[in-house]
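Input (FAD-binding domain-containing protein):
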Amino acid sequence: MRQDCDIAVIGAGPAGSTVAKLLHDAGLRVTVLEAQEFPRFVIGESLLPNCMNVLERAGFLPALEKAGFQHKNGAVFECGKKHRTIDFRQNFETTGWGTTYQVKRAEFDHILANEAARAGVDLRFDHTVTAVQTSDGDCLITYQDKAGATSELRAGFIVDASGYGRVLPKLLGLARAPQSIARRALFTHVNDRIDDPGYDRDKILITIHPDRHDIWYWLIPFSDGTASVGVIYPDGDPEFTGMGEQDIFDRLISETRLGHLLANAKQTRQLQSIAGYSADSEKLCGDGYVLLGNAAGFLDPVFSSGVTIALHSAELAADMLITRHQGHTDIDWETDFAKPLIQGVETFRSYVDAWYDGRLQTIIFEQPDDDSQLKRMVVSILAGYAWNMENPLVAKTDRYLEMLHDLCTPAS
Ligand code: FAD
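Output:
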């Protein structure tokens, strides 16, 4: 049966546009089906330096530089009087980026999608995938266009980059319960009007509630004087029973220094609320398909790892599919895609677990603010370099976190 394309990609978020562009550049025929019209809002606005390496390889950087996004070189962590500045350039890597951007995703994702389409990728907005039949070399996709008309697309292979849509996990029954407890995110955009001369717009500000270490906030400034503000707390927390979400948000902001920093801020978007955003899958690949980015799963927003994992998975999958296209038959998706991808995701997972049980917060605030290798190892993962096995903190994350925590715990 003649195929309409070599590879069908579901979704034109960062994972979808990037895998499509990399495959197209290598000579494959790619069709991307995207359910929405772009630009569209999506949360996930603070990038990590490691994702720049993939964006550069895909040829996206000139267009991103032209867009004038907010430069980002690190993170500031605050909890009451405790304060720690992390500079991503002070990392363990010998090559690769040490800086990145903070982006409004509507604009960022639109640029990536446009660049892929401009290069020749067949990218169709307003096309929602509703059903699939997967078999390596012979896949069938059913989709609906804006007018509600149903059509089919035949492809050699399906890449699911549908993010929170999680198309293949749902259609193929691959979803499994995430390991973490359900948390809720409340977030908005503000015209921030921050006039504190000490405030550094080149860094994401992560604030921890002074009395509740499981409640934390992000402040992500953009280059146009606006910022993204959000707070994470346990979903259904009895402390907030009976309160409306805007009241919870306002109260939590007022209980930290953010209340002063944002005293003159004006909210420009309606407050949004998402709960149960963590997701996991039984497997990441199978006969004729692979899952990328959030379609495969999502850990937690705390280290801004989402887009970096999405782009890393896109690059790994593109390399596999290019090798396959070149006629190599000895491709093992489990060994060469799933296993190495999961290695880095597990590193982030250990960081996330150590954040919520307090160990990582202790390490961040108490580790000597020096230029030691240990500090560089910690910073490297915060900069997104979670797959570099040369970094002992990647190779043996839990053991090193334990050791660092012991070293950083003040003697009582
Ligand atoms: P997406 O960006 O979700 O793109 C998927 C696309 O697929 C969408 O455009 C969608 O319309 C399309 N689609 C869905 N269903 C279908 C269908 N049936 N047919 C066709 N198309 C379909 N990450 C960071 O890196 N930094 C952060 O600061 C950050 N903050 C976050 C804060 C919160 C509260 C949360 C919940 C997440 C955060 N993330 C962050 C994670 C980030 O949002 C995601 O990891 C990232 O968007 C994943 O990219 P993606 O390409 O996999 O999917």
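Residues 10-16, 33-36, 42-47, 128-129, 161-165, 167, 185, 230, 274, 277, 293-295, 298, 301, 304, 306-308, 310 surround flavin-adenine dinucleotide (CB under 6 Å).
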